[in-house]
Design goal:
Elements (H helix, E strand, L loop, with lengths): L5 H4 E3 H6 L1 H11 L3 E5 L2 E6 L2 H25 L6 H15 L3
Parallel strand pairs: 1-2
Antiparallel strand pairs: 2-3
């Protein structure tokens, strides 16, 4: 995603409403977010579905990494050897003879 360009990527809500289908087309083609202003201040950001999905995937990834780090810091971890031993024990029980 390229950096935000004030001249291209910020639009007053009145202009957005007047040309909504054109703005949606541009966002879909470029993948760039659009900042919509109201009374000269940012009021919202419009994203393409692909950009939204990408943003949500990143957020879930970051949350999972943070959760893992918290587990490690709290001692909620198992050694590699313990996990391997557990897996060997589980799969020995389920092997047909």
């Amino acid at each position: 995603m390229r950096p935000l360009r004030v001249s291209d990527d910020i639009v007053p809500v009145s202009d957005f409403k007047a040309q909504a289908s054109e703005w949606l087309r541009r966002i879909g083609e470029s993948g760039q977010p659009l900042v919509i202003t109201q009374n000269g201040k940012p009021a919202g950001v419009l994203l393409s579905p692909q950009s939204f999905d990408s943003l949500m995937e990143r957020a879930r990834f970051v949350a999972a990494v943070e959760e893992g780090l918290e587990d490690a810091e709290s001692g909620r971890v198992h050694s590699h050897e313990a996990v391997v031993a557990e897996m060997k024990q589980r799969y020995r029980k389920s092997e047909p003879r």
